[in-house]
Write a structure and sequence with these properties.
The chain has one helix spanning about 20-25, and strands at about 45, 55-60, 65-70, 75-80, 85-90, 95-100, 110, 115-120, 125-130, 140-145, 150-155, 160-165, 170-175, 180-185, 190-195, 200-205, 210-215, 225-230, 235, 240-245, 250-255, 265-270, 275-280, 285, 295, 305-310, 315-320, 325-330, 340-345, 350, 355-365, 370-380, 385-390, 395, 400-405, 410-420, 425-435, 445-455. It is mainly beta. The protein folds into two domains: about 5-335, Methylamine Dehydrogenase, Chain H; about 340-455, Immunoglobulins (Immunoglobulin-like), CATH 2.60.40. The relative contact order is 0.11.
């Protein structure tokens, strides 16, 4: 989440409404006024009619539309794949609807943090609300379970709740206090899995209510959204990483390129990857099941705070913008690509005791900016480097690595390494370039140069 609430602030019913509080705190940020369809690259954004709606949760409905919880406006919104928005007010304008999910009954179910309710809305807009038995439960995440019921997280009382389709509620206490259960997802094992923001754990609860908890390797990771991945594992967002937990409890963490980007929501995409929102950097990220991360910036100025995501029936990745007051769509089939082409120049021959230079040139043939470009030059140990221009960020006896940052389309960078030949032989050097932006021709990202070191 973009900013975790301090423990000292977790008292009283109002403290559970942190998306609305964050909205109020950040509403003064300068925002661009986008047109109704502000397309940049593969992203389209649709403004919401209600001012300061503060959209948080988003889910795909059985009708093929997207359904959104407007935390700041006390409404549930429906948005068609073409961007037409309809809003349905809740009975309490201060209900702070948070998370929404498709239920097994063909309706959408959602949490109301401020009103302490579980809500249900049909695709025709008819709303029913069910009170929770525990006051100030701080209900947040909700998901459909494998048992035909809805399961939800009660951060205010450290419980996981279950509600039947007729509104009967059962609550299961967690083993430890101050766990702050937050988001919840069905798993591949017939159980429900959830994040514990302040407990710094991933939890599992069976449909009979038995709870198991798994501590995270990183302290203060603040786990947020969680989703069932295409590889049979659970994937979750941390403050500076994306985590994976197997059904057996083995955890792997993959740092994101910007440790301050603030990953929040996460969902499985139609392309077999996981997609996540980076709330602090206005980017949508993609992570493959192997852990490779690519980031896609949102159009326009900053401060939009992308929050939660859902895979649409139209094969798009849909997401909410908490402060931008918009719902966005990213086409995973049209994600930007950057064709990086390296060249490596070196003399064909050299003599022992003489100097020569390797010149590495990296060009971006586009069409997109290449993010997080890294170049690595490896060479035999018999060719020690005597000068490196520009200086490499990483050095070993046989390799040099430069982290060049972003390389715009049409731009190029040149790197030079002066070496000394110490003895006769054949010396082959290799230059490899990588980027977090997909490359349409990855086979061309590695080049070699051979120099024959002879006495005559």
């Amino acid at each position: 989440m973009p900013a975790a609430l301090p423990r000292s602030a977790r008292t009283g019913p109002g403290c559970r409404r942190w998306p609305a509080l964050l909205l109020a705190a950040l509403i003064g940020l300068p925002l661009a006024a986008p047109p109704a369809h502000a397309a940049v690259g593969d992203v389209v954004e649709y403004p919401l009619p209600a001012p300061n709606a503060g959209p948080v949760g988003i889910a795909t409905g059985p009708d093929g539309n997207l359904w959104v919880a407007e935390n700041g406006a006390g409404r549930i919104a429906r948005i068609t794949p073409a961007g037409a928005v309809t809003e349905y007010p809740l009975a309490d304008a201060n209900s702070y609807p948070d998370t929404i999910t498709q239920g097994p009954d063909g309706a959408l179910w959602f949490t109301e943090t401020g009103s302490n309710l579980i809500g249900r809305i049909t695709t025709a807009g008819a709303i029913t609300e069910y009170p929770l038995p525990t006051a100030n439960a701080g209900v947040l995440g909700i998901a459909a379970g494998p048992d035909g019921n809805l399961w939800f997280a009660e951060d205010g009382v450290d419980k996981i709740g279950r509600i039947t389709l007729t509104g009967q509620v059962t609550e299961y206490p967690l083993p430890q206090a101050d766990s702050f259960p937050y988001r919840i997802s069905p798993g591949p094992d017939g159980n429900l899995w959830f994040t514990e923001v302040f407990g710094n754990r991933i939890g599992r609860i069976t449909t009979a209510g038995a709870v198991t908890e798994y501590p995270l390797p990183t302290a203060d990771a603040f786990p947020d959204g969680i989703a069932y991945g295409p590889d049979g594992n659970l994937w979750f967002a941390e403050a500076a990483a994306i985590g994976r937990i197997t059904p057996g409890g083995a955890i792997t963490e993959y740092p994101v390129p910007d440790p301050n980007s603030g990953p929040t929501g996460i969902t499985t995409g139609p392309d077999g990857n996981l997609w996540f929102a980076e709330s602090n950097s206005d980017r949508i990220g993609r992570i493959t099941p192997a852990g490779a991360v690519t980031e896609y910036p949102l159009p326009g100025s900053g401060g939009k705070v992308p929050f939660y995501l859902a895979a649409g029936a139209d094969a798009g990745i849909w997401f909410t913008e908490l402060i931008g007051n918009q719902v966005g769509r990213l086409d995973p089939a049209a994600t930007p690509a950057a064709d990086l082409v390296p060249q490596l120049a070196a003399p064909g021959t050299a003599r022992p005791g003489r100097f020569f230079t390797y010149t590495v040139t990296v060009a971006n043939h586009g069409p997109a900016v290449a993010d997080d470009v890294t170049v690595r030059l490896t060479r035999p140990l018999v060719l020690p480097a005597v000068s490196v221009t520009p200086p490499a960020q990483e050095r070993t006896p046989s390799s040099l690595t430069w982290h060049l940052g972003d390389l715009p389309a049409g731009a190029q960078r040149t790197l030079q390494v002066r070496v000394v030949a110490t003895r006769p032989g054949t010396a082959t050097a290799t230059a490899q370039v990588t980027s977090s932006t997909p490359d349409p021709n990855p086979a061309g990202n590695t080049v070699t140069a051979t120099t024959h070191i002879t006495l005559g």
